[in-house]
Amino acid sequence: MDDIRRPDDMARITTEADAQAYIEEQIALVREQVGDKKVLLALSGGVDSSVVAALLIKAIGQQLTCVHVNHGLLRKGEPEQVIQVFRDEMKANLIYVDAVDRFLDKLAEVDDPETKRHIIGNEFIEVFAEEARKLDGIEFLAQGTIWPDILESEAGIKAHHNAGGLPEDMQFELVEPVRILFKDEVRVVGKALGLPDNMVYRQPFPGPGLGVRCPGAITRDRLEAVRESDAILREEFEKNGLAGKVWQYFTVVPDFKSTGVTDGKRTFNWPCIIRAINTTDVMEVTVEHLPAELIDHLVQRITTEVPGINRVLFDYTPKPPATVEYE
Ligand code: XMP
Question: Strand, coil or helix: what is 46?
Answer without folding.
Answer: coil
